[in-house]
Amino acid sequence: MKAHLDSFVLAVRYLARWSLISLLVAILAGTASALFLFSLDAATAYREQHPWIIWLLPLAGFAVGWIYLRWGSSVEAGNNLLIDEIHDPKNVVPLRMAPLVLGGTVISHLFGASVGREGTAVQMGGTLADQLTKVAKLAPGERRILLMAGISAGFASVFGTPLAGAIFGLEVLVIGRMRYEAIFPCIAAAILADQVGLAWGVHHAHYAVAAVPPLTAWTIAAILAAGVAFGLAGMLFARATHALSAFMKRRVAYAPLRPLIGGTVVACAVWALGTQRYVGLGIPVIVEAFTQPLPVWDALGKLAFTVASLGTGFKGGEVTPLFYIGATLGNALAPLLDLPFPLLAGVGFVAVFAGAANTPLASTVMALELFGPAIGPYAALACVVAYLCSGHAGIYRAQRGSKLPFNARRDEYPKVDQSVGQDVNQRVDR
What we know:
Blueprint: H1 2-49, H2 57-71, H3 79-87, H4 97-111, H5 118-130, H6 132-135, H7 140-159, H8 162-171, H9 183-199, H10 217-251, H11 257-273, H12 283-289, H13 297-311, H14 319-337, H15 341-357, H16 360-371, H17 376-389, H18 419-429
Helix pairs in contact: 1-4, 1-5, 1-7, 1-9, 2-4, 2-11, 3-7, 4-5, 5-7, 7-8, 7-9, 7-18, 8-9, 8-16, 10-13, 10-14, 10-15, 10-17, 11-13, 12-14, 13-14, 14-15, 15-16, 15-17, 16-17
C-alpha cells in the first residue's frame, strides 16, 4: 500500500507541475501563433490587392537572407535545430529565432513566395517554450519534454488540430517511434494552445467531405493505389527541396543571393503563367479541391513553386503547400480511381504530408479532426502506405532514422531510448 501511495503522490506532483508548465507554453505558443496568423492574413490580402508586388520578391528575399546572415546564423536551421536539441540538449534556443522566423515568413508571403506556416509556428512555439528552461530549473531530460510540448503547441494552434499537434510533437523526432514520456505535456500544451488561439479570435479554414462511400474491395484497393502516389509525391517534394538547397549552397556562396535568384525565378514564372495561383498558402485552391474537379498540373505547379521558394532560402513551412499538393493531386486522381473527388482530396491532403514528414499517425488524426470520423479508415490506409512508400526521405533532416518494417529482420526489434524517462525519474526522485 505504501508503494502504491508513493507512486500516486509522485504522479499527482508530476501532473500538477507539468500542467502549470504546459499552460505557460500554451499561452506563449498560442499567442504567438495568433499574431502570426493575423499578420499572415493581412500580408496575403495586401498581395492579392496589389499583384505587382511580386516583382519586389527578389529584393525581399535578399533582405531576409541578409538579416539571417547578419543576426540569425545560429538559428537558421529552424525546425531541425529544435529536433537536434531534443535529441542532444546543449544550449537554450536563442530567443531571436521567434521574431526572425515570424518576420521572414510574413515578408515571404507578402511578396509572393510559395511557403507554408507550420515551420514558423513550430519554431516560435519551441523557442518560446525553451525560454522556460532556466526559469523552471529543468534538467536536460525535462528540457527535451519542454521542447516537444512547444512543438506540439505551435502545430496545434496554427492549424486548429490539437490532437494531431500533440501526436506530431511525439512522432516527428524519430522515424517509426514515439516518445511516450512526453505524452501528457504534449497533449496538454496542444489542447490549451489551440484554446488560446481561439480566445484571441483565430478562425481556421474548414473543408467539407460531404459523402464517404462504404468500404468495399474496390475502394480499399483504390485508396492503396492512391497512397502509393501520395507517398511518391511526398518523397519527390522532400528530395527536390533538399537537392535544390544543396545545389544553391554549392554554387552561390553568398547566402542573400540565393533567395534573390529564387525570387526572380518565381516572379518571372508568375508573369509567364499570368496567375498567382501557385504562390502564398493557396487556401482558396485547397477549398476548390473539395468542391470541383481540378487539373493535375495544379499539384505540379504548387510543387515546383514551393521547391523553388524553400530551396533557395525563403522562410516558412512546408506543410500547407503539402496540403495543397495532396488535395489537388487527390482531386485529379479521383476520376481514375472511381472515387468521389472530395474524399480523395481530403485523403491526399493528409497523406502527402504523412509521406513527406514521416508522421502517419499525426496525419491520420488530423484527418479525423478536419473531416470527421467517417474518413478515418481511408485516411489511415493512405497515410500508412504513403509513409512506407516515401522511404526515409523527409522534409526534416534532423529526424533520426529507424528501419522500415520491410527492411527489418523478423528477430530484430528496435531498442528504445530510455534516457529521457530516466532523467525525468531521477529529477522527480531528487
